[in-house]
Amino acid sequence: MIRATIGRLWQLVKPYWLTLIRPSTTISLGVLTAAGFAAGIMFWGGFNTALELTNTEKFCVSCHEMRDNVFAELKNTIHYTNRSGVRATCPDCHVPHNWTDKIARKMQASKEVWGKIFGTISTREKFLDMRLELAQHEWVRLKANNSLECRNCHGAGFMDITKQSARAAQMHSAFLFTGEKTCIDCHKGIAHNLPDMSKVPGWSTPVFQ
Amino acid sequence: MKTRALGTLAAVIVAGAMAIWMTAALAQNIGGTRGPTPLDQNAAQPPIPAEVNDDVRRGRAYPEQPPVIPHTIQNYEISLNANKCLTCHGRQFTQQSQAPMISVTHFMGRDDQVLATVSARRFFCTQCHVPQHDAKPLVENNFRDIDSLILTQTGVDPKQAVRRKP
Predict the structure, then answer these.
(1) Which of A37, A152, B98, B107 has the greatest CB tally within 10 Å of its CB?
(2) For chains A and B, what is the number of CB pairs under 8 angstroms?
(3) Where are the alpha helices (DSSP H) in B38-117?
(4) Above 50 in pLDDT, residue B165?
């Protein structure tokens, strides 16, 4: 049965395959090369354009899951509105800027497309139930790359700790500059609300009910 | 009889008019904190004063006063999910953070029974503790704490007494 199907399929593809593997008889090698080059440019350009299109805040908030939950929360924070008006958009923090890492992250994001299609977090309740897991993905990612997306803007080497509050200066000297901790270890939930932190190290303060 | 009744009526009307006029006159003199701006208009907004962020502990006006917060707490989440304050001021984190530990009274239930951890009724810090702004008081404050009152009673100049150590 299966062999018969494959055989019928092969009969369908065979003439095209035979044309493809034979050398060209009428078109010159030069035209083929030039056309291939031009098509390559167009394909690559198109690919990158499409990639960059998915790398914008506008694209992210075009889904209600992002617009009504995390984006709404971001609006109250310093990464959205502040005295100088410099702000971070979704991909600034959530997508690596480096090309190879970016492609790797985009391939991971196919899981997010799956989630969108099957409505994994299609309601507020579903989102809140998954919030800890989703946040942990980001914490693990930022911990693994030494908070690279933070450091794309906040370089430890460029911090003037005399301009920081005494508390911040002391903490950064003791933990950040020594490399003992990375940004995300302390600065969780700075751009979005936090999930249930009762089992997260450094946060777990049991409360007597 | 009729004349008396009319006279009384006139007196009442005059008294009423006087009362209304006096109230109106008084109301015009009441500045209040909103200033002389009429009620149907918006006063010019004063600039928002800077938040205190120097980490220097403020004194307490009376023993039970919840200490004020000498640093900014902008976007510090205090919710059912998380309490940012306790990540420094919680008992288990004070060695690392060098922040003052929350008072042991926060480990007591409402029947003063001592609990092992923070009591749920003390969890929402900003119900009592608040950050400060470098703002001029809108009205003068003549508050004197109990120590200075006691010292005045005993005939000691409180200003002198505060400087001297007991």
Answers:
(1) B107
(2) 61
(3) 86-89, 94-97
(4) no
Q: What is the DSSP string of A136-171?
A: HHHHHHHHHTTSHHHHTT--GGG--GGGS-HHHHHH
Mutate: best of B69, B73, B75, B95, partner A, most A CBs <10 A:
B75
Q: How many residues does chain B have?
A: 166
CA angle B102, B106, B109 (to 5 degrees): 170
Q: Inter-axis angle of helices A99-108 and A110-117, to 10 degrees?
A: 30
Q: What is the pTM of this model?
A: 0.76
Place of tokens 């098509």: A39
Tokens of B164: 């001297």
How far is Cα A53 from Cα A48, in angstroms, rounded to an integer? 8
- Whether B55 has its CB under 8 Å from any CB of chain A: the answer is yes
Contacts of B62 (CB under 8 A, 6+ apart): B145, B146
CA–CA separation, B151 and B148 (whole Å): 5
Closest alpha carbon to A154 in A120, A121, A110, A184: A184
Cross-chain Cβ contact B55/A197 below 8 Å: no
Residue B148: which residues within 8 A CB-CB, separation 6 or more?
Answer: B158, B161, B162
Q: Read off the pLDDT of residues A152-167 as tens digits, 9 standing for 90 and up.
A: 999 999 999 999 988 8
B131 in contact with A at a CB cutoff of 8 Å? no
Q: CATH code for B52-158?
A: 1.10.1130.10
What residues have CB less than 8 Å from A152, skipping those under 6 apart? A92, A97
Mutation target for B interface from A167, A172, A175, A178: give the one with most B CBs within 10 A: A167
The interface predicted TM-score (ipTM) is: 0.77
Q: Residue A60: count other Cβ atoms within 10 Å of its Cβ.
A: 19
Q: How distant is the Cα of B92 from the closest Cα of chain A, in angstroms?
A: 8
Distance CA A185, CA A174 (A): 13
Contacts of A76 in chain B (CB under 8 A): 75
